[in-house]
Each structure stands twice: as structure tokens, then as C-alpha cells.
């Protein structure tokens, strides 16, 4: 079923004179090691077929990454709208930061880039944690739809999404907040645990410190923790000692792709 909508964000650089809202979408999640894409059932948040994954090119320049994105779209034989995540601040479809990606992304008009490679379709690019937040708010734990929740993705860096009754406040970048003289993501990302071979006890102490700082400043109703490490939550969740409730995210590694597909479908373009 295809429902046509006439609504569109005024500033969004998207092709949306007559937006399309379908039950199937396509999301692409650009990460440091892999670029992943899948068709998404927008009613259930499930993938429709197998996820396609191609290694992130090195160096991961905008042009090289866009070529891989085009390859995934072509392999999937998808001709509809595409939502794309980036581990970067994205405002008015311009990438404004590059903490864990090639610095040449800074200042890139990401809509122009992907439009050139994917041609003539609706495209939305957004921050990866923001995409995960949108997906969790719709398909994950109901706590993400109530009150002021903060979703954190713990991976190479720390990504964040602020959700107020399930609505997103984009580009919050809590991973770069200074905690104890260090950027939070240098203290407690999943990569830091792995690279330094930290025990669950040592790493959760660091995470606790970071969460306490966020708690002090934002007083959220809940922290929702995503990223691969959320799969092992029984190892570290019981070791945390903060006032705020902490729950693991539910969509796991699906969240970025699902959120990207939802964002373009809803014509959200931060
Ligand atoms: C980036 C964020 C991103 C996070 C998770 C951070 O280093 O600055 O934009 O959301 O990593 O990938």
C-alpha cells in the first residue's frame, strides 16, 4: 500500500513535492568497519530480507563511501527512498563533524553527495545514534516513548539520542562531553574496553562515572544503552550504581538501519 502525503519539512533538502509513505523502506548504516543496508518493514521494524554488508573502504572518503552505498542499493535492487546514517553531526544535510571517520567529511553536503551517486530519489542523512533513537522509540522498549529518555550507543565511540515522548532532539553528541578530564567516549566506549582489555568491573566503573555525569546534567527518566555491548548486558548492568533506570536497547544492530529507513519515510532531515 502506498499513501501519499503532502507534508514536508520546509528546510529539508529532500525531493518531496509529493512524499511517499510506504510500508517498506530502505536504510543504510555507515560504520567504521562496515556499511550495512537492508529493506525494512516499517510496520514491524524487521528486516525484509538479509542485510547486505560491505567493508568500509579505506580511506573512508565521502566519494569512496558513496560508491559502496550505491553498490548496496544496486545489489538490493531498490529504487525507492533511502535513509543513511553517519557517525557525524548532520545539520541541514551537511556533515559537521568527524570524530571517528575521515576528516574530509566535515563540510560535505551529504545530500548532494548521495544524490549524485543514487540519483533522483528521496534521501535523508542523519546521525547514527539519532537513527537508533528513532527506531528504539517506535519498536523498542516503551520507556523510550515516555518522558525524557537518553539513548546511548556504545561502539567505537559513544553516540547519543535525546528523546522527549519519543520525539528526537538531534545531534546531542554526549560522547564528547568531558568527564574526569577525558572525552566520555575515550573513557567508556565499547572499543576502549576491548582495546585496553578492561574487565567488566573496570569498564562498568568508567561507564558509571559517565552516566552519573549525564544524570547530573540532564536528569533523564531512563538511559537506554545500545551498541553490540548491550547484548551482554547481564555482565555490566548489575554493576552500575546510579539513580536513573538503565535498560538495554532492544533493536541491537538493527537500530541504525531501521531508524534511517524510518527517517526518510517520515521526511525527517536534520
Ligand atoms: C560521533 C557521533 C556518533 C558516535 C557513535 C561519535 O564519535 O561524534 O556522531 O554518533 O560516535 O558512532
From TrEMBL:
Keywords for this protein: Kinase, Transferase
Xref: Pfam families: ROK
InterPro entries found in the cross-reference section: ATPase_NBD, ROK
Molecular function in Gene Ontology: kinase activity
Coiled coil: none
Similarity-based family: Belongs to the ROK (NagC/XylR) family.
The protein's name: Polyphosphate glucokinase
Lineage of the species this protein comes from: Bacteria, Bacillati, Actinomycetota, Actinomycetes, Mycobacteriales
